[in-house]
Amino acid sequence: MDFTLHEVVSSDEFPAVIDCQNEAYRIPYNAFATMYTPQGLAPTATRNAMIQNQWDQHMTEPGGHWLKVVDPETGIVAGAALWHIYETDPFTGAQEPLDAVWWPEGDQRKLVNMLFEQFYGPRRTIMRRPCLLLENCFVRPGYRRRGVGNMLVQWGTKKADEMHVEAFVEATDDGRPLYARHGFHYTNPIVLDAKKVDEPSEQRRALAKELRLPMVVHAMWRAIGGNTIDGERAIPCGDASVLQQEA
Questions:
Q1: Distance separating alpha carbons of residues 155 and 114, to the nearest angstrom
Q2: What angle do CA 53, 61, 92 make, to 5 degrees?
Q3: Contact (CB, 8 A) for 77 and 69
C-alpha cells in the first residue's frame, strides 16, 4: 500500500489531523500534549477547542506547513507533522511569552507557562538564522513502523537541503531514533520541572504529578545538507554551549 502525503490547506481537513494527534499521544502517553489540552470542558468541547486553537495559531504563522499522510484505502489520516520554514532569523525583535490562556487563571496556568518558557526559551539562542523546525510529528499506533514518519520527516529535510539551511527538532524518547536516521544529532537535554515553591497548592501538585515532572526532551540538530565535517559536528548557529557529547 502506498500512503500519500498532502499539505493541509483548509480548516475542514484539520479535525481529522487533531483526532490523529490525540490518538497518537495517548499511546504512549505524551505528557507535554497535556499542557495544550483545554481545561474544564466536556470531551467534545475540548476537541473542538483544540482544533480551533491550533488552526488559529497556524494561520498566524506564514512559514508553517501542516502535512498529513493518508491511507488511500480508508481515507484515515495515518500521521501528521508541522514544519516551520524560517527564511530569516525567527527571533528578531521583542518576543512575547507564550501564555496558556486555555488554562484557567491560577497556579496550574502559572506552572504551564513556566514549563513553556523552559521548553521554548532555548530556541531564542540557537535558532538565530534561516532554518527549519519540526514543531510536531505523530503517527497513529496502528500505522507505526510502516514508513509514515519517514515521509513526514523527509519532506522537511528535503526543503532544508534545497534551502541549504540547518534543521531542528525537540524529540521524545520514542521519536529520537526516527530523527537520527534522517541526519539529526542529539545536542542536549531540555529538562522541564517545577521550581520549588513554599506551600504549593493542591492543583499545582496534581498537575505536576499528571505531567510526570521532571520531563526530559532531547534537542536535536541537523547540519546543512545533513552532513558533518570530517566526522565532527559543526556548532549549531554558532553557540558551542548547546552541544554535549552524544548520548
A1: 32
A2: 125
A3: yes
The residues facing 117 across adjacent strands are none
d(CA 190, CA 94): 23
- Report yes or no: 68 and 77 within 8 Å, Cβ to Cβ: yes
8 A C-beta contact, residue 3 and residue 144: no
Q: Which helix (H) or strand (E) holds 169?
A: strand 166-171
Q: Decide: 208 and 111 in contact? Cβ < 8 Å.
A: yes
Query: CA 195 to CA 111: how far, in whole Å?
Result: 9
245 has pLDDT over 60? no
- What pLDDT, on the 0 to 100 scale, is given for residue 236? 59
Tell me the C-alpha to C-alpha distance, in Å, between residue 199 and each of 3, 58, 108, 109, 205: 52, 38, 14, 17, 10
pLDDT category, 231, cuts 50, 70, 90?
Answer: very low
Helix (H) and strand (E) counts in the chain: 8, 7
pLDDT (tens digit per residue) in 87-131:
999 998 878 888 998 998 999 999 999 999 999 999 999 999 999
